[in-house]
Amino acid sequence: MFVLGNFIAAIAHILDTVLTIYMWIIIIRAVLSWVNPDPYNPIVRFINQVTEPVMYRVRRWIPTRGMGIDFSPIIILLAIVFLQSFLIRSLLELANQFR
What we know:
The protein has 99 residues and is mainly α. The chain contains 3 helices and no strands.
């Protein structure tokens, strides 16, 4: 059973790393929105392609018309922190039960 516990722990650590990287990409996207970056820059295009699907879904739920402020990065960051606090810790506790 320790193999299953190690597997779940590895999944939890990988998921935590992916969420942390995505959190930093969202932060970079928010900072880039304050300046006027070159839209043809490959790095800017990659950041936009990676973040836009999630940000679009959040923007559909939030009525931001006329406000001029995009709250979607804040909501996504809060969701990532929630997932890291709840899901990752729950997976690690589950992994410890199998060890």
